[in-house]
Specification:
Largest sheet: 8 strands, mixed
Oligomer: single chain
CATH architecture of the largest domain: Alpha-Beta Complex
Strand content: 5-15%
Radius of gyration: 19 Å
Number of domains: 2
Helix content: 25-40%
Shape: globular
Bound molecules: threonylcarbamoyladenylate, magnesium ion
CATH superfamily of the largest domain: DHBP synthase
Strand order of the largest sheet: 1-2-6-3-5-4-7-8
Order of helices and strands: HEEHEHEHEHEHEEHEHEHEH
Low-confidence stretches: none
Mean pLDDT: 93
Number of strands: 11
Length: about 300
């Protein structure tokens, strides 16, 4: 197998029902043809993901999106404002969408990713690409081709599109109820969504990716607003520590997963991460950090 297919080879693999890691602006996805049930099952098997977790369908800007989901006026308005981009819409599904994609739900998650290679791939495939993040279940999402190579030990072909520019997963908005709801914070913040569709409510649908322990490094992670003080305290107790300092939020988001991976490999006893200011994109960063820190929860 060629570990780094070019776009033509990647397209041929996807048409043959194989799984290929694809670049997006958020994180890399583990993709398969969304019309091929065997390809979707291969994604689940590769990722080690429990059945019943729905996957997002990625679409080309030119696709007929309405073949996949039912778009209300609010859905149209959000798509118009943010696609291509880091926003996933949960919509009532169209009849032809596979149960393997929706986990048997009546809804489907749709997104038009903002990456030129993947847009070309989608257009030439003439179908959607089902793709969860290209990491093993519960682990840190990959933002470079190298992360995927490490994660799957060279067993998954990768369409290398360079480092992901956003760095954390898309914002997810549920539009299956009267009032739209935020299921997962992301690069596009709540206020930007609300400026288009009005106040967001709380969803009754749990987003499965919101398992408390998610995006987790192996090393224990402590969140602290006073990282240096905590370092001194822990080092006095004889424990080795590495610190992730907060920085400008878009840079923090972009670097977050690569930094957590790098720090995880240092072999220290404890990682300390400093939360971002809790506004705008900072919410999404802190959401991921707190999930990464809760490895002792039952999920
Ligand atoms: O940025 C992203 O969204 C990345 C890139 C690859 O596009 N994808 C991603 O996929 O993060 P994944 O599978 O790791 O997370 C998608 C989340 C999961 O929590 C999934 O349960 C939820 O979206 N989801 C997908 N379809 C859904 C549906 N019909 N109803 C509720 N939640 C859904
Ligand atoms: Mg994921």
């Amino acid at each position: 197998m060629n570990l780094f297919p070019d776009i033509h080879e990647a397209l041929a693999l996807l048409k043959a029902g194989e799984v290929v890691a694809i670049p997006t602006e958020t994180v890399y996805g583990l993709a398969g043809d969304a019309r091929n049930p065997l390809a979707i099952r291969r994604i689940y098997a590769t990722k080690g993901r429990p059945a019943g977790h729905p996957v997002i369908v990625h679409l080309a800007m030119e696709s007929n999106w309405e073949e996949w989901g039912v778009f209300s006026d609010k859905a149209h308005a959000l798509a118009k404002a943010f696609w291509p981009g880091p926003l996933t819409l949960i919509l009532p599904r169209q009849a032809g969408v596979l149960d393997e994609i929706t986990g048997g739900r009546e809804s489907v998650g749709l997104r038009v990713p903002d990456h030129p290679l993947t847009q070309t791939l989608l257009r030439d495939l003439g179908s959607g690409l089902a793709a969860p993040s290209a990491n093993r279940f519960g682990r840190i999402s990959p933002t470079t081709a190298e992360h995927i190579q490490q994660e799957f030990e060279g067993l998954v072909p990768i369409l290398d599109g360079g480092p992901a520019l956003v760095g954390i997963e898309s914002t997810i908005v549920d539009l299956t109820h009267e009032q739209p709801a935020l299921l997962r914070p992301g690069f596009i913040d709540k206020e930007s969504i609300e400026s288009i569709v009005g106040p967001l409510g709380h969803s009754s649908t749990p987003a499965p990716g919101t398992l408390k322990s998610h995006y987790a490094p192996m090393t224990s992670l402590l969140l602290s607003h006073t990282p240096e003080e905590d370092r001194l305290r822990l080092e006095k107790e004889g424990r080795s520590v590495a610190i992730l300092k907060a920085k400008k939020t878009d840079q923090y988001a972009r670097d977050l997963y690569a930094e957590l991976r790098r720090m995880d490999a240092l072999g220290v006893d404890i990682l300390i991460a400093e939360p971002a200011p809790n506004i705008g994109l900072g919410h999404a960063i802190n959401d991921r950090l707190s999930r990464a820190a809760s490895k002792f929860s039952i999920d």
